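User: Can you help me understand a structure? I only have the sequence.
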Amino acid sequence: MDTHTEITRELRLLEHIEQDPDVNQATLADKLGVAVGTVNWHIKRMVAKGYVKLQRAERKKLRYIITPEGLAFRARLTMDYIEQSFLLYRRIRGRAREQLKKLREAGHDSVRILGEGDIADVCRLTCLEMGVTVVDDPAAPALEVDGMRVMLKMQGDRVNSQTNKTSKTSQTNKTNKTSKTNKTSKTNKTSKTNQPP
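Assistant: Let's start by predicting it. Here is the structure, written out as tokens:
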């Protein structure tokens, strides 16, 4: 699991516990979008480190209390989360800038953005900063956002990637034919050598 995800999960877990100390693990798991076992593991870890105390509220019900150490831990998590978010922002912005420089070198000053979410928003801001117009024109080059990747797609890119695939396939086929021919000739030489005179 990556550090940013773990920081986010622990921070959200502590926030939910602070809002409702009587919350159960199933509800926490549902709010975080993880398995109950994952919530249980995080809570056990926080209890062991002294960040959370368990208090029996009823026979089968527990109450979670954040300790002063837990509050300090949450503050550190918040700072780590902000730091990781800025690092991610800078990394994505750098990738977008690289792609937009290639766009400019190719003689374009407008681009479409394919994708939604925070990464696409960072790309839009980077376009604004670099004076590149964001358009909806399907003929325009595109910045494609795929997860954390930002790729520039120009009109010829599909043809080039198809050509590369075809070229690689024919190279593989040639290699396989050569390999089979070499094996056959080695087998024939071996069988001729092993024949009695």
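Now, to help you interpret it: The two ends are 68 Å apart (CA to CA). Residues 3-66 form a domain with the Arc Repressor Mutant, subunit A fold (CATH 1.10.10.10). Let me know which part you'd like to focus on.
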